[in-house]
Amino acid sequence: MKRYKVAFVSLGCAKNLVNTEQMMALCRDAGYEVTGEPEGADVAVLNTCGFIDSAKSEAIDHILALGRLKEEGKLNKLLVTGCLTQRYREEIRSELPEVDGMLGTGSYTDVVSAVEELMEGARPEHFGDIQHTYEDGARMVTTAPYTAFLKIAEGCSNGCAFCIIPKLRGRYRSRTMDSLLREARELAGRGVQELIVIAQDITRYGLDLEDGSNLARLLEELCKLPFHWIRLHYLYPEAVTDELIAVIAREPKILHYLDIPIQHCNDAILSAMRRRSPKAELVALFDKLRAAMPDVVIRTSLICGLPGETEEAFEELCQFLREQKLQRAGVFQFSPEEGTLAARMEDQVPPEVARRRVEQVMELQAEIMDAWNEARLGSVVEVLCEGFDPQEGCYVGRTWADSPEIDGRVLFTAAGQVPAGTFVPVRLTGISDGDLTGEIEEEES
Question: Which of 258, 266, 377, 368 is nearest to 320 (CA)?
Answer without folding.
Answer: 266
